[in-house]
Amino acid sequence: MVGEMKTEVLSVNPAESLTASKVPEVVAGFWLIKILATTLGETGGDSISMTLHAGYAAASLIFLLFFIAALSFQLRSRRFTPSIYWFAVVTTTTLGTTVSDFLDRSLGLGYIHSSMILTVLLVSVLAAWYWVRGRIACQDIADIRDESFYWVAILIANTLGTAVGDYASDDLGLGFGGGSLLFGGLLLTVAIFYFATNVPRARLFWVAFVLTRPLGATLGDILTKSREDGGLAVGTIETSLFILSSMVLAILLVGEFSRLRKSYS
Q: Is 99 inside any structural domain?
């Protein structure tokens, strides 16, 4: 990362403090929903590109339209709305899935080269964000410039996570179960850094955000891939509907917990 991040990287400017943040508070519930969203992105993306045989290019165009529509609603809203925000996140995971597969397989770049290109893109976006705004944030986002950088970074991070997950599962031979253990362990390491060090929280957030994508992807593959490939052979459409229901329930529970916490604070 370019420059030394400041510990106050999550603070907002006085001029922005009167505007409510348009992204959720980063708590444990956030990460649960994020993993469900990325798992849904994997199974949902595969449902269109593979199960319905649309192909990676066509599926990417379809999900790009969904992403543009979701992002327009998100940018036009004046406050954090869970349904709009998480719908936008899911569209980045589905789009990231098909774009990564298009780069890896249709263009023949392979997982490692795609991962390297996407890593450079993500670091470049975060560096540009820091250069323009003087900070890299993960919450307290109200300014349109911060929000624009935020969503571009999310889209690239989810695409990168897909490529990294496939690289670990296929090229490194870890399989879906081994990949889940690897990325789960890396996320645990990030959590230890969060509680035991003074590493800027925004930096840890974006590392964790990338890592939750391959974790969700490998969990989705465990459910949907054939038994010969190490999966449970549950249909992609059925799995997507189940994960969607679980995600909606989690959003409602997290929202209710947040409301109760604020009422007693």
A: yes
Domain assignment of residue 130, yes or no: yes
The model's pTM is: 0.84
Q: How many Å separate Cα 80 from the centre of its chain?
A: 17
Q: Would 1 be classed as within a structural domain? A: no
> What is the chain's pLDDT, residue by residue, as a tens digit (265 residues)?
444 443 333 333 444 444 588 999 898 899 999 999 988 877 776 666 555 556 667 777 888 999 999 999 999 998 999 999 999 999 998 888 888 878 888 788 888 999 999 999 999 999 999 999 999 989 889 999 999 999 999 999 989 988 888 888 888 888 888 888 999 999 999 999 999 999 999 999 999 999 998 898 788 878 877 777 777 877 778 888 889 999 999 999 998 888 887 787 6
- The Cβ of residue 61 has, within 10 Å, a number of other Cβ atoms equal to 13
Query: How far is residue 106's CA from residue 126's CA, in Å, rounded to a whole number?
Result: 28
Domain membership flag for residue 84: yes
Enclosing domain of residue 230: 21-264
Taking the C-alpha atoms of residue 94 and residue 45, their distance in angstroms, rounded to an integer, is: 5
**DSSP string for residues in 149-189:** HHHHHHHHHHHHHHHHHHIIIIIS--HHHHHHHHHHHHHHH
Whole-angstrom distance, CA of residue 174 vs CA of residue 31: 24
When divided into structural domains, the chain yields a total of: 1
